[in-house]
Amino acid sequence: MSGSSTSCQRTMQPEEPSRNGKDIAECCSDASCATCNHFNTIVSATPQLALSMSAANSGKVGATPTDLAHCANIKLPISAQDSFSEVARRRKTPIASDCVSLDEFQRELKEKMPEEQDFFEKLEQELDKVNDFYKQKQALFQSRLDNIKKQQDIYDTMLGEELEASTLNASIERSRVTFNRTLTNNGTSRHKQRAFEPSAQLRAAKGKLKSAMLEIYRGMDLLKNYRVLCYTAFIKALKKYQKTAVWCRGTDHFLNRVDGCYIATSERLNAMSAELEGMYVARYADGSRSKGMERLRVNANGAGGGSPTCVFRSGLMLGTSVPLIVRAIYEANLLSNEQRVPYHRQLLQIYGSIYLVLLFMILFSLNIMAWARAHINYRFIFEVDPRDYLDSWQFLEISSFFFFVASIVFWANFALHIEHNSYICIYVLLGVLFGLFLAPVNTFYWSSRRWLIKSLWRLLLSGFYRVEFRDFFLGDEMCSLTYTFSMFLMFGCASANHWTDLDDVCNTTQWWSNAAFLMLPNLLRLLQCLRRFRDSGDAFPHLANGGKYLSTIITIWLASSNRIVGGTAWRSVWVASAIVNSCFTSLWDLLMDWGLFESRSKHRFLRSELKFERTWLYYVAIVVDVLLRFFWITQISPNFFSFGHQFHQATMAYIAAVFEVLRRFSWNFFRVENEHISNCGQFRATTDIPLPFNTSMALDIKDSNVFQNEFEHDYSAIPVASPKAPFASISPPLSH
């Protein structure tokens, strides 16, 4: 055991009278010490004190101080404005004047049971781990803060130079105008000086600096909450021990040891937070502290919870959409529509491809809901702004609104008996949906739509950007929407031929270009895998993952060859390739994406750590994922798998597309869960925001290389090498 505590300087709450040594000795010698008030007096202020360390922290890191107090069944009398150090200085009245010294503690501990000795040895080890881990993370944030300060100095210098140059140019312009006015005698000048506006590069640099400051401040809040929970964990563990073992002198000594540890006495983190607050308020909040702190702090209740009206609107729109869809399908299949809308089959396929995307969005809102309830930090995983994001109900409301709009147009297209040019409705629907999605207006959750637009752009330019989780996750989602991609070709062909003779002219399943559209999402994922291999140099798993998508591309090409060329040879090669691809992708889903079949796992065939409570869901998901990976078998003999019913080939293709969306819906739950567990295991909690200026060498501010290349900067989080996470049940707040 380490430490050199020889006196106990603990303090009880001000309203409690001091206990003298005699009272404590009598208390500790009593067999009923576990029920006395001595230990409660020692620790009565301690959980409150620990919780007050993050009272100024409004970040929702998994549990707020109020949540922790509720779970611990304690009250919070300390003001929310008090920091840890401020409250600690209040405690000056010792509870016990005869607190056991270190030598006495070790001597008495040797006389205790082996289990008690192991308990205190474990506490000592965990306390060292907590302190070391806290110091490493604090040093990381200190280095990031120092870098931010250097970057800010460079920005201020460049801004000053631009302002000086702008002022000089404005002065020259005023002199020129005055001189011309004097020569021409035109009277008063109408020249107005334009307000100074920084260059585009400096405006971009300002945005990056602000984002970096917000991310660092959020990380400091996470570290504060980590300190709170670890400190509280020691107190609660000692309280449980005292109730069981009845050794007040030992617990009293170790409580003093905890009070003197680094996480309880360090003020460095608070000073760093205050310095960052001052920098942000002065430069980016016009000197208004209330405005600056409102932006810096993360709302403890989320970006905006789902209100009852939000839930009601979603339910109303979805409920209204169902009868509209049923009626439209009924009208579309009436024989009279054969003459009135001869291209109704193509219209149904295009509407079906749109509904696949909307169904995907609705199901994804259920994914978000499940992740939030399981305390999976999907916001950090997808790198969305924790101060401005959509919760599950808000996402469901957007999806329901799009679904409702599509249902109205779908119903109007077939049920209103439009005699001529009814295909115009599909153009109206696409225009409305794309208009709502792309409109750059500060309504209808524009910040979230902008995030998705940027993500889609990064996906489209796969290979040019470093690959983040959101990039390859979105690419995988697109791989389940290949049916919709193929309908782009159908829609283009129908438009080019003015919606006439579509059965003969637009049989796109017999086109090689259709195979190219089906391959496109997998090709983008292949490029992402190659880019990740280039950046990391790791052949596994990136090249192996790329091989998976390459096998899918080959299988799609062979399936198209079987349809277009035909013949037993092509059919046999396609079936063999599809079997290999389905086995490959199924194993990758289970072993790599979900992280299942972990050796020595306490859950059979699963992994040791599970975030979802119902274990049977994992087994069901395994079976469903494998079966749906082999759903292509139904295309070999459609009549056999339709149980005697005659289904059109297009109908079977759409059913397969719907099942693929459902499979991806199931896959999403466990893929993000596995990523979250990996982040916790590697202590990834904050992102290293790319900074605009290169400070790795001495720079001339006028050097054109002062700006870093966005395409070459590593956006990924930088984990810190550290020992095994102290207190497995306590460490998640840093990762969550």
Please outline what is shown here:
The chain has 736 residues and is an all-alpha fold. It has helices spanning 21-29, 38-43, 46-52, 65-72, 84-88, 102-110, 114-184, 200-245, 248-259, 262-265, 268-284, 289-296, 308-332, 336-340, 344-373, 378-381, 392-415, 424-438, 446-460, 469-479, 482-496, 502-505, 512-536, 539-564, 568-593, 616-629, 638-641, 649-681, 732-735.
Descriptive report:
The protein is mainly α and 736 residues long. Helix content is 65%, strand content 0%. It is built from 29 helices and no strands. The chain has helices at residues 21-29, 38-43, 46-52, 65-72, 84-88, 102-110, 114-184, 200-245, 248-259, 262-265, 268-284, 289-296, 308-332, 336-340, 344-373, 378-381, 392-415, 424-438, 446-460, 469-479, 482-496, 502-505, 512-536, 539-564, 568-593, 616-629, 638-641, 649-681, 732-735. α7 (114-184) runs antiparallel to α8, α11 (268-284) crosses α12 (289-296) and α15 (344-373) runs antiparallel to α21. 33% of the residues are buried. Mean pLDDT is 76; it is low at 1-83, 86-98, 187-191, 300-304, 697-705 and 709-736.
